[in-house]
Amino acid sequence: LLVDRAVVRIVTDSLGRQNLQVQSLADATNDDVERFQNYGFTSVPPAGSEAIVLAVGGRRESQVAIAVEDKRCRPKGLASGDVCIYHQDGQSLIILKKGGVIDIRGKTVNYDASELFAINTAQLKVAGPSEFNEDITVNGKSFLDHIHKDGDGANTTKPL
What is the pLDDT of residues 40-84, one digit of tens each? Predict the structure, then answer.
């Protein structure tokens, strides 16, 4: 009974290490099961997720969870070698694909850079309506303050 399968019932994510309440062994319930996660990655699994738990030192009262997943919402059909970060709603995910392709999908994608947001690319494509609430500069020229010469050599108005 060193290794067991369990179902996650409650998740407490406010501590230094996440704690779970799990149900295993013919409805035996264990509280304060520490969940170990890989460095740099964290998640809060939904109730009903499945876990692999270990009884440290053979003591069932000191269990730890070493893996937790929810097969109800795990994306399926990925190609060999693909890596996916996903949300239970199925609408938000990041997929690392073969050939250096990264797919990011979501209803809304927010970027927040306190110092710099740099895009270095050979080609940039923007599809759909775009809205800029402030002036942008392209090749050192202001978008909102630029003017052109019309056919008669007179200045045009600024963009409206």
Answer: 999 999 999 999 999 999 888 889 999 999 999 999 999 999 999
* 26-32 long-range contacts, CB within 8 A, separation 24+: 28/60, 30/6, 30/60, 30/61, 30/63
Tokens of 75: 């994306």
Query: Position of tokens 């199925």?
Result: 90
Length of the chain: 160
Q: Letter for the amino acid at 83?
A: V
Total-model pTM: 0.75
**CB neighbours of 87 closer than 8 A, spacing ≥ 6?**
73, 93
Sheet holding 93-96, edge to edge: 83-86, 93-96, 102-105
Q: Are strands 83-86 and 93-96 parallel, antiparallel or unpaired?
A: antiparallel
Which tokens sit at 45?
Answer: 């699994």
CB atoms within 10 A of CB 30: 21
Contact 11, 18 (CB under 8 A): yes
What secondary structure letter does DSSP report for 18? -
- Residues 137, 142, 144, 145, Cα dihedral to 10°: 170
